[in-house]
Amino acid sequence: MPTILATADFLTAPGIILDVRSPAEYQQGHIPGAISFPLFTNEERAVVGTCYKQKGRDEAIEIGLAIAGPKLAPFVAQAKQLAPDRILRIHCWRGGMRSGSMAWLMETAGFRVFVLDKGYKGFRHWVRETLATPKPILTLGGMTGTGKTAILHALAAQGEQILDLEKYAHHRGSSYGNLGLPPQPSTEQFENVTAMEWVMLRPDRPVWVEAESRMVGTCRIADELFRQMMMAPVLQVERSRDERISLLLKDYGSIDRNELIVATERLRKRLGSDRTQEAVNLIAQGNLAAAIEIVLNYYDRTYVYDLKRRDVPIYSVNVSGLSSEESAALLIETARQLFPIKHLQQYEIISSSSLPVKE
Description:
By secondary structure, the protein is α/β, with parallel strands linked by helices. It is about 55% helix and about 15% strand. The longest helix is centred in the last third of the chain and has 21 residues.
């Protein structure tokens, strides 16, 4: 018999994870690192599901067996290639027939098998509970072009804990944020990745997180985590405007002009028709620095508005002329002086109060 494990134990158990749900279910969201190993194709799952609704469980099982039967030997052969150690973790949606059937097959073929209790649905409940777990956060603030992301990575390189939401979302958080990056995941998958990172962070040390709006591109930050972020103190890095433009030129100077123009057009309602057209013309002429100057006026106003919504202490840290590594070192020293861990944990307690966990 396969070993049934709760989510926390399943995630730390040995063996690769085989997700036996349909490809469409996997695409919508999956356990990070899991391999799509569908028992049914999208079309086959629809056929079985329709039969179940119209004719009942027994006939649906018969159709399912007829569909899966010819695939059994190939399933085993593929699993042997994927898991030469003969250890597997398997799950479906609810921990029911699909995972049970695949677990039986693999055990019969000589594999050691762990099955996820309550399936992916149980994992999703664990995700929301995990993201609601309070930890002391330090918000890394700063206007567009201050190099926050590079500083965040430098903080990690110097031993600090970070949560890199823009990395998980494949987006830098502006109209230009997805340029040069892979397609964004679903919000569900974004939550899954974030939870897997969040659970690894120690609760007795601060976690640095960039100041973000609720949406990172098309990915929405889970309410449980976003509330903690909004209650955290802010260390705001500041640079001169010329330095910010220079940093943005490094980030976007090699991007195709047409892509930059399309991204700028998305700002037309907020930037204004005349200013947008001026920025578009400058990009077309190759004068990216002047175009950035125009767009920064909008993003600076947006940042100030967002900052005013945070009823928390805000501390400015001037990093003009400093490298990312030097800026990170200065922030670490500033944070240690301002926020002993016991003080930070006060924010942790406040941010976690009266926050329901969603199914």
